[in-house]
Amino acid sequence: MLLSISKSFTFLNSKCEHAHLMKRNPRKVTWTVLYRRKHKKGQEEEATKKRTRRTQKFQRAIVGASLTDILAKRNQRPEVRKAQREQAIRHHIHATDEGKNQKPKGKAFYIGLAFVELGSQKKRDRKHISSKYH
After folding, report:
1. 3-state secondary structure of 65
2. Largest separation between any pair of C-alpha atoms in the chain
3. Distance, CA of 101 to chain centre
4. Which GO terms describe its biological process (predicted)?
5. How confident is the model over 64-122, as pLDDT tens digits?
6. What are the start-end ranges of the H helices in the chain?
């Protein structure tokens, strides 16, 4: 069979030719080789499934904490860890309360929750910021 775009096709029989002319998808026609390959028909189950390797979990030291420190902290009793956590939270709250009372040095103004220093920016940027927020 020869098409106008000069591609030639050779078919086994007229059944294949008619299926091609009707633009049937060979992957959906049950008797074709492509269908049988796609749906794994006629393959013998000789090859067993490849075994996948499971990843092993292990602990490693990180910067600032050796492995013994990490394991010691993990094996602490929950009450001790809870007390340490509460103490750290109290210390953090106390430190931030002291920081809020301090005023920033130099020219600055308050936007939302943070002070913006004007001395570190160029003059044209200062005009833009001050007009935007005042």
Report:
1. strand
2. 92
3. 40
4. cytoplasmic translation
5. 888 888 888 888 888 888 888 898 888 888 887 776 666 555 555 555 555 555 555 55
6. 14-21, 33-38, 67-74, 78-101, 123-133
**Do 70 and 61 form a contact (C-beta atoms < 8 A)?**
yes
Contact 1, 17 (CB under 8 A): yes
Q: What residues contact residue 116 under an 8 Å CB cut-off, 6+ apart? A: 108, 109, 110, 129
Instruction: Give the predicted TM-score (pTM) of the model.
Output: 0.32
Stated length of the chain: 134
Alpha-carbon span 12 to 68, nearest angstrom:
74
Q: Residues 91, 87, 113, CA angle at the centre, nearest 5°? A: 35
Beta strands in the chain (DSSP E): 108-111, 114-117
CA dihedral 38, 42, 44, 50 (to 10 degrees): 10
